Amino acid sequence: MEVSPARANAGTGAVDRWHVEVDRSLCIGSAQCVHTAPDGFRLDTARQSHPAGPETDANEKVLAAAENCPVEAIVITLLGSGEPVFPPEE
Questions:
Q1: Of 15, 17, 30, which is closest to residue 70 (Cα–Cα)?
Q2: 2 against 45, higher pLDDT
Q3: What letter would DSSP give residue 60?
Q4: Under a CB-based contact definition with an 8 Å cutoff, are residues 64 and 36 in contact?
Q5: H or E element that contains 56
Q6: Cis peptide before 87 (omega within 30 of 0)
Q7: Which of these, 38, 30, 40, 42, lies nearest to 68 by C-alpha position?
Q8: Please, what's the largest Cα pairwise distance for the chain?
Q9: What average pLDDT does the segment 9-31 reach?
Q10: How is residue 67 annotated by DSSP?
Q11: For residue range 35-90, what is the model confidence (pLDDT) as tens digits?
């Protein structure tokens, strides 16, 4: 299932909102997410990634960061419904 980050909500013209999490037990501090989406992710002093904010508008750069994470530590769900954006359900 491919989800377009710019998907509008059922004819309202509103852009989807996402909840973004980083599984810190998986994060290896590669900083790929920070390089891909500098406004979406930060590294702490332990070089662990975390979202700049847990909620964001659907965003191609944040999705690309999740897709390119070498350990798939980034999880994105639709805010409210919890429907998976990344990784997609199989």
A1: 30
A2: 45
A3: H
A4: yes
A5: strand 55-57
A6: yes
A7: 30
A8: 43
A9: 85
A10: H
A11: 999 999 999 999 999 999 999 999 999 999 999 999 999 999 999 999 999 998 87
The Cα 46–Cα 14 span in angstroms is 37
pTM of the model: 0.82
Contact yes or no for 34/41 (Cβ under 8 A): yes
Amino acid at 51: P
Q: Which residue has the tokens 């960061």?
A: 65
Cα–Cα distance for residue pair 75/87, rounded to 1 Å: 6
For residue 1, pLDDT over 90 is answered with no
Take residue 21 and report the two structure tokens written for it.
């999490």
Q: Where are the alpha helices (DSSP H) in the chain?
A: 32-36, 60-68
User: For 40-49, b where at least 16 C-beta lie within 10 A, e where not — what string?
Assistant: bbbeeeeeeb
| Count of Cβ atoms closer than 10 Å to residue 69 Cβ | 24
